Amino acid sequence: MSTTTVAAPLTNSLTAGKLPKYTSLAVLGASWLVAAAVFLMLQLSGASKDFNLAGTLFFGTVLYCVAIYLLSYFVEGVRKAKDRLVTALVTAAFVVALLPLVSLVVTTLTNGLPAFLTPSFFTQSQRNIVGAGGGALHAVIGTLFITGLAGLISIPIGLLTAIYLTEYGRGRLARGITFFVDVMTGIPSIVAGLFAFALFSLLFNDPGIRFGFGGAIALSVLMIPVVVRSSEEMLKLVPNDLREAAYALGVPKWLTILKVVLPTSLAGIITGVMISISRVIGETAPLLIISGFTASMNYNLFSERMMTLPVFVYTQYANQGADAQAYLDRAWAGALTLILIVMVLNGVARLIAKLFSPKLGR
């Protein structure tokens, strides 16, 4: 009599007890839904006036961290559960860091679109407007003119200073320049405005001087150290082998910098320049001091007051008239315009960096 032995089914220890591929996303979505349901109940019960989107994302992500750890612990074991917990904590940190930005953009869009979409906002100034209507054309022109002139002043000075510190600078002079650049990086913006105001008041003997060129000088004081620091770090990343190869071929140092070092670091330099522009384009205090504010158009940087978008937002909010909502709508629309300008500039910078960066592939 023969007996038949049935072999036990083979199991792979590497895949056994493993959660499905999209479990993490499903648990995250379910956690957000649970948190949304809780806040919706609070809103319906009257405990909360509006639905709290930021709270939903935050507490939902915290719930996700706990849920994914427990689920992985019981299915996959302690080791994999710890790995998923750390991954979940990294995700939670990303969500928490992103919440203020998302909240800012959503709030600005919600409050700024009504005035932003009106045809007069980009075709009229605020001259003779005391209620609803008018626009921010004078502020947009002033921002572009003053920031553009500040860039024309700051970018060559900052880039040449960075080249000197990286390629030529040695000894006390280089250390002194580095020290003062570090000090200038931490200067409050209002100090830059007071410096420009004091400088031109003494030069022109006019204690009430206000003009756009002074605002450009104030912004340059804030912009130059950022350009120097960012450009210097990018130039330091260029391998010395490239410089030595050019020197071995008999290329002069200045031509090596122009043809080898700068093209190699161009993408990073452009990014640093855009960061510096983003740093100064929203400044209010220095422009309020030296450029002033006006409700009329002004295309002349060297004469009379010139309005800018940050000052426009401030004045619309601070000096509300009888129709307060119209002033608030224009303030939010000005803030939205400023955000869009920065986004466009960053997009253009990325495109330029991609087009002119060195091609490493064959």
TrEMBL record:
Which segments constitute the ABC transmembrane type-1 domain? Answer: 140-349
Pfam families attached here? BPD_transp_1 (PF00528)
Per the record, membrane topology reads: Multi-pass membrane protein
- Main localization, broad class: membrane
Q: Which family does it belong to?
A: Belongs to the binding-protein-dependent transport system permease family. CysTW subfamily.
Which locations, inside or outside the cell, does it occupy? Answer: Cell membrane
User: Protein name, please?
Assistant: Phosphate transport system permease protein PstA
- One BP annotation, GO: phosphate ion transmembrane transport
Q: Return one GO MF term.
A: phosphate transmembrane transporter activity
Q: What does this protein do?
A: Part of the binding-protein-dependent transport system for phosphate; probably responsible for the translocation of the substrate across the membrane.
For this UniProt record, the keywords arranged alphabetically read as follows: Cell membrane, Membrane, Phosphate transport, Transmembrane, Transmembrane helix, Transport
Q: Which organism does this record belong to?
A: Cryobacterium tagatosivorans
List membrane-spanning regions: 22-42, 54-75, 87-117, 137-165, 177-203, 209-228, 260-281, 331-353
**UniProt key word Heme:** no
Gene Ontology CC annotations of this record: plasma membrane
The cross-references to InterPro entries, in alphabetical order and at most eight, read: MetI-like (IPR000515), MetI-like_sf (IPR035906), Phosphate_PstA (IPR005672), Phosphate_transprt_permease (IPR051408)
Q: Which Gene3D superfamilies match?
A: MetI-like
Q: Which PROSITE patterns match?
A: ABC_TM1
